[in-house]
Model the fold of this input.
Amino acid sequence: MRQADVVIVGAGSAGCVTARRCAELGLKTFLLDRKPAAKIGQKVCGDEISRSHFDATGLDYPEDNEISSVIAGADVYPPNLRNELKVRGWDEFDGWTVNRIAFGQRLLEDAKHAGARFKQEIHVGGPIFRRDTVVGVEYKDLSTGEKKTVKSKLVVDASGFAAVIRNKIDSPFVENRIAKSDIALCYREIIRLKIPLAEPEVARVLLGGTHAPRGYAWIFPKGVQEVNAGVGVAGGSGQGSPKSLFLAFKEQYPLFHGSEVIEGQGGAVPVRRPIWSLVSNGVAFVGDSACMTNPIHGGGLGPGVRAGIILGEVAKVAIAKKNLSAKGLWSFNTRFQGGFGRRLASLEIFKRLLTDVSDADLDYGFQKRILEAGDLMAANRGDGLSMSVVEKARRVRRSAGRLSLLRRIQKTTKLMKKIDKAYANYPHTPNGLERWISNVQEIIDSAVFV
Ligand SMILES: Cc1cc2nc3c(=O)[nH]c(=O)nc-3n(C[C@H](O)[C@H](O)[C@H](O)COP(=O)(O)OP(=O)(O)OC[C@H]3O[C@@H](n4cnc5c(N)ncnc54)[C@H](O)[C@@H]3O)c2cc1C
Done:
């Protein structure tokens, strides 16, 4: 390993798909991971991925042993666990829970098959620079203990939450610190139930409550008698550890009585809009390292693979034009931020509503159907919660006594539309970024719903 066109740090879902696309387009691509090859894919996750991401990217659907369950619907519960919304036909959610190892191994095989060279047990320490440009990485080969460097035209940080390259970039547009409140700390277990699930294709999402204060819990089917279940809460909120919250929840929730834990582990995921710029000189960020996750539930598999396809194409053009500066890589920003990034940013506004509204208000909103299943689907598409005049009048009647809740929902809609428009107008060159950031920051700062 001396010199490559592209060095990708991390063979998670985002890294593998980026590597595959780069190699398919004829770029000499190295894919490095600190894990041994057999453990690629292993990850603390809810394991759910929507079909829509495969349709958008052309990736093959999961097959055979990659599939744990087909998901066709979600029941979304308010804090008091009554009056749940039964969301069906939710294109952006329905899909599968996957066997993480089998799915990850397939993505790795696809990258290798396309021509990417995968190197296992390579712990990357950080970037190497020539002036303000990243020109490679330094690493330790864990099998020999040797420390070395590898040079490349482009370095891709796909190291997930660790963000081992992004953390060491000094640029005003590349955030190397993520606020604690924008990180969901999670604990999840794979559980064998005592009795089979009544609806083995329906996922459950449980908002707020004592089980997940200002956060969420989930129960995703993994076959008819197994589930992936966990809790995620905002970092730094002083709400207790996600593990203790989850264990208390399990005690109370009848589905888990008499169940057996197969595996349990904690993890963290960013839950905010993507970082301001996905590129800097000689470097690009993809997947969790770029905060490409759904701010409501932390789903990051789909956004990361969508971005990986775009990044491969951008790398090909930038290398052909011999321009690996931030400017030369900029179309990764305009294509992702101005495309799927719009949705992620809008969802951050919706997340802020869900975390600011009290449990009592959320319970009331579900009970009186001030919030409808269609709203959740529209919000997830990034569409806001548009209501006709008649519908608005109906909800005003239903909100009697708690009009402020409806007003906050309407404010959310307005801000979601505003941020969507801002992202659609992502600047075409780095010059416009500073102004754009201050505009978006203003929208984010006004998204307070207490
Ligand atoms: C509890 C929990 C539940 C979740 N549930 C879901 C869900 O249901 N659906 C969904 O879509 N998303 C979910 N997510 C988020 C999802 O798991 C991530 O968004 C996604 O896996 C990120 O992919 P990635 O490729 O960016 O990073 P990762 O999958 O984290 O891959 C990063 C890779 O980089 C390697 N690496 C790290 N540091 C180094 C280094 N120094 N040197 C070399 N290699 C390195 C790692 O070994 C790893 O293989 C969940 C996350 C958590 C924590």
